[in-house]
Here is the input.
Amino acid sequence: MTGVPPLDIRPFEAGDQSAVIALWQACDLLRPWNDSASDIALCVDTPASNLFVAGTVGEDGIAALWATIMCGSDGHRGWLYYLAVDQERRHAGIARSMVRYAENWLAGQGIGKVELMIRPENDAVREFYERVGYEVEPRLVMSRRLQDHA
Here is the structure.
């Protein structure tokens, strides 16, 4: 990669949806049990969360979508989701910029700690987050799918 043109990071807009979902698909972030359109809708409809997109700046706004990050707060901690960077643009500092942007947004919401979950086999993602200052904390994560239970 020879260089990165100026990056415009801004909140998601409805017209970004197909490009965002395509990027998530290309980055292998989608799972059959998560409906990406519903995840986006819930995020943008929740005041304590945001979805940011980034790309090159054109005359009419973002000309090419290169990256996304979703973040939100549970009122106590901030969480990061859906960090994605186009394959052709990796290793240029874009992911780091997206993480810092989301962290700054969360800090502006009064959040003092950010967490995220990574699948245990995803070494590359764990190593990235370690490089940008995150550390593994010994925790047991438990969950329950509410839509499966009446």
